[in-house]
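Researcher: Structure prediction, please.
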Amino acid sequence: MESFVLEPMDRSFLLWRCLHDGPVTRGNLDLPPDESRLPFRETAIALLRELTELYGSTAILTWEGNRVVGLLRFVPKVVSQMEGSGGFCLLMPYPAGPREDFPQEAFPSKETIKDRTLVVTCMQILSDRQRKGIGRAMVEGLKSWAKGEGWEAIEATAYQDLPLVFEITGNAGRKWWENLGFRVVDSEDEEAMKDYGDFVQTLEAQARKQGMNPRAVTQKFIMRWETQADSNR
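Model: Predicted structure follows.
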């Protein structure tokens, strides 16, 4: 990897924005190019502040100088399953994102959580910084942080390893996660994807080009890494 610095996000810099609008700095954090993001700012900051206070961090950030060029968000699995959490896309209305009053929920303390699993909710890398090892480094950084903080597992959602999936979702494919020590623990057909015919047709064309079964392009996988399993490797 080039001259990038990774660190867990803390309360001194709550990155409520995504990287779709370009790199974020301390100077432009509250000046998003797209004003449609602003209505979500208050809810996102309140939620990140509360969860960071309780659990220490909710993201691994990649800095290049004064710019954030990579972002890996995560939350405890129990929090992701709470009513009102939505899909945890902070800049989208519920149910894609958290409900407006979700930051006021009574979140469990770290000490009372029995299922000590973290869930990756988002991974973004600036387009001109992709394929430079940032994604792998952020996942390894999260694994190290999770071990140190007493978490026992990490889960992530993945799809087939197709260029269009990564371009749109920012999520790496199944094989990518497997190369980082994750394994498939569940899978299902993503029925919602079938509503977008042109999108699915493009995925099928990419699958054929890579020698994959085109009928498998709508599969969704739950990938899991466990601290104990990693220690025994």
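Model: The chain has a mean pLDDT of 91.
Researcher: Thanks, that helps.
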